[in-house]
Amino acid sequence: MFCCRLMNYVGSLGPLTILEIRQLVADVRAGSFKSLGCLMVPTYLLNFHECLRFVLMWLLIIMFSQEPFLHCLSAMDCPQGRQHQDVYSGCAFLAMIIFWTQLLDLAIFSEKIMACAAGRTRGVYEFC
User: CA angle, corner 13, sides to 28 and 3, nearest 5?
Assistant: First the structure.
């Protein structure tokens, strides 16, 4: 079970963190910030999808820090792991919602591309 979680952390959290750091550095170098009340926010975070990715990255970081398996390396059933289970479960729930939201967005994008391709191929057949 932990192997699947580890793949999630390495496969999702690693590239996501690198992407977020690159975007943050680019905005800092360009001086591209917007004021939201008393906070200065990088402009890339004003995009809804980028903001979701940023939240997902932090949820995965919190999940990794609260990972029950890491607190119980020596035993399968230990009280230290159960102490972190509530925070881990809540973050996992929110992270799955964001993953599914991104997947749904990708499916809609793919559907639009397929509809465009079908329309163009039909137009080519009618033209010939």
Answer: 165
Instruction: Please answer whether residues 43 and 54 qualify as being in contact, where contact means their C-beta atoms are separated by less than 8 angstroms.
Output: no
Nearest to 8 by CA among 50, 78, 69, 80: 69
pLDDT number for residue 124: 54
- For the chain, give every domain's residue range: 2-127
Tokens linked to 70: 């890491």
Contact status, residue 128 vs residue 96, Cβ threshold 8 Å: no
User: In which element (H, E) is residue 24 found?
Assistant: helix 14-30
With beta carbons less than 8 A apart as the criterion, state whether 20 and 53 touch: yes
pTM over 0.70: yes
Give the three-state DSSP class for 41: strand
